[in-house]
Structure prediction request, 429 residues.
Amino acid sequence: MQTAVVGIARTASRYRWIVCALLFFATVINYMDRQILGLLAPLLQHDIGWTQIQYGRIVIAFSAFYAVGLLCFGRIVDWLGTRVSYALAMFVWSVAAMLHAAVGSVMGFAMVRALLGIGEGGNFPAAIKTTAEWFPRHERALATGIFNSGANIGAVFAPAIIPALAVAMGWRSAFVIVGAIGLVWLAVWFVMYRQADSRTDDDELSHEKDEAEAADAGRAKAGAPGFKVLIRKRETWAFLIGKFLTDPVWWFYLFWLPKWLNESRGMDMQHIGLPLVVIYAITTVGSIGGGWISSALLRAGWSVNAARKTAMLICACCVLPIAFVSQVHDLWLAVAIVGLAAAAHQGWSANLFTTASDMFPRRAVGAVVGIGGMAGSIGGVLFSEVIGQVLQRTGQYWALFAIGALAYLVAFVVMHVLTPKMAPARLDA
Prediction:
């Protein structure tokens, strides 16, 4: 009997990596659906005739409603659980992605981008909570880095296939085909995650309990804490400010790099894909590597505080060279610099996300990630308006890259001041 229980525990323990794979593929789809507009922006700008400011405001529509989606799904994930809430989010954003094919005006694109933002807001709260449920603390940054690298893989696949689809079948078909992939994942999720539920039992899993979760166990019956409780915590503000200052830089890469290559480097739709593929291939290394660094330091006996912050500081420093990319004339050297910065962002992000589960119990993780994600989206809204105005007036990208270079060090300092020891939050105080 004891042997059978051990066997079940080992099976459940191994199964967590299958769960991680499901999160990875969901994030791939999330970013393919998100990035398709940026990739087709030069073509759509020609067909529809929008200005830099109008395009910026289409991006703002996504960013603003992504903030709403993050905030709402943060609570929905904690209330309904990961299986149902993740499925709901995937359905909404996949339908929204396909609906892009039905519009042909600036207002129409703004509306479908808003719906896409609401649905995509469910991805990271659900994924981070799932990671907190399945992985021990010393594996969470690595697991987060792996599934978060799906953003990079999605960003690699997107420029590799979407321009070709648009040229061969038209941009409307590209939106429909890419959007429909999410419905396939949805069917797999319902089948596979039902098996995961049946294998999950805290007594059977071989990994250890977190100290914060053990301390909070007596209060867990109260359910997920409300926003009023969470927003009073310095730990929430550390995560929130980290997202507010750095998420907009990543969105700048996603939505404006194709336009930067087109406008500053003279690359057309048929040639723009390869540099973007190279950038996001480099980024994949950063996402997994950033998570691996802090996980390796934890295994070596470092504290959570020291391990996470060391990894984040390394990533913040690796972003700095992008301040000078506009002065680089060689295309592939510029691509390497942008790739390093984007990789560093993803390494930063893997550790930043993990701090939510480091500092909060599982019952609060979805809400905290939602609050932080909302802050990042608000930052994205503000930065997108700045980008549109700067480019409309000057046509120059150098100031935007300089802002992106400094954002991470500023965020790191603020987070360290707010959480010098990164201790678990006391939600009863």
Residues 70 and 329 are 39 Å apart (CA to CA).
